[in-house]
Amino acid sequence: MTASIETFSFIRSFTQNNKVMEIHQSAVILLLVLASSFTAYGQPDDIKPRYQKFLNQHLGPHVSEHDCGKEISKRGITASGTANGCKDVNTFIQANKNDIKVVCGRGGTPQDRNLFKSNQPFPVVTCKLQSGQRHPNCQYRGKKSTRYIVLGCDREWPVHYEEGIING
């Protein structure tokens, strides 16, 4: 009788250990599925450099109207193909990148082509070039305002700020 109790205990323990192993295997499979879905639905490789350029030129949660020249110089923002190499206008959006990205989806309204207008106004700092300056001595004057923003989007990723559209 003792042998059968010991055998039963071993079988019960073995079965419990296999169930534990099954749970671990299921967890590993679930993690692999989740990891592959993040890769499949993450940022496409061809968008990454354009999105990074957009962030460099327009993400400015802490940029003040007094920082325009310093920020534009530090970030290396220029306008190729112009007589003086200085960008005429650059706008910094005073929000985090997640709030900005939402404009390309449920937080924006489709416009022409790939443009989306924000459903809510954003605080921005608009930096305008003062006349007569040449790169690398570009001088800017900044103005803080709150307005709807219009973004060029590619597969729900912001890749362009549309400077010319400022009315609500």
Account of the 3D structure:
It is a single chain. The chain is an alpha+beta fold and about 170 residues long. The protein contains four helices and seven strands. Strands 2-3-6-7 form a four-stranded antiparallel sheet. Strands 1-4-5 form a three-stranded antiparallel sheet. A hairpin with a 2-residue loop joins β6 and β7. Residues about 30-40 have low confidence and may be disordered.
Quick recap:
InterPro entries: RNaseA, RNaseA-like_dom_sf, RNaseA_AS, RNaseA_domain. With 168 residues, the protein is α+β, with helices and mostly antiparallel strands.
| N→C terminal distance | 86 Å
Spans of 5+ residues with little confidence (pLDDT < 50)? Answer: 30-40
Overall radius of gyration: 27 Å
| Total beta strand runs | 7
Number of helices: 4
Mean pLDDT: 82
Question: Largest sheet at a glance?
Answer: 4 strands, antiparallel
- Provide the β-strand percentage band: 15-25%
How are helices and strands ordered from N to C? HHHEHEEEEEE
Fraction in helix? 25-40%
Shape: globular
Subcellular location: Secreted
Keywords: Disulfide bond, Endonuclease, Hydrolase, Nuclease, Secreted
Family: Belongs to the pancreatic ribonuclease family.
Domain Ribonuclease A-domain: 47-165
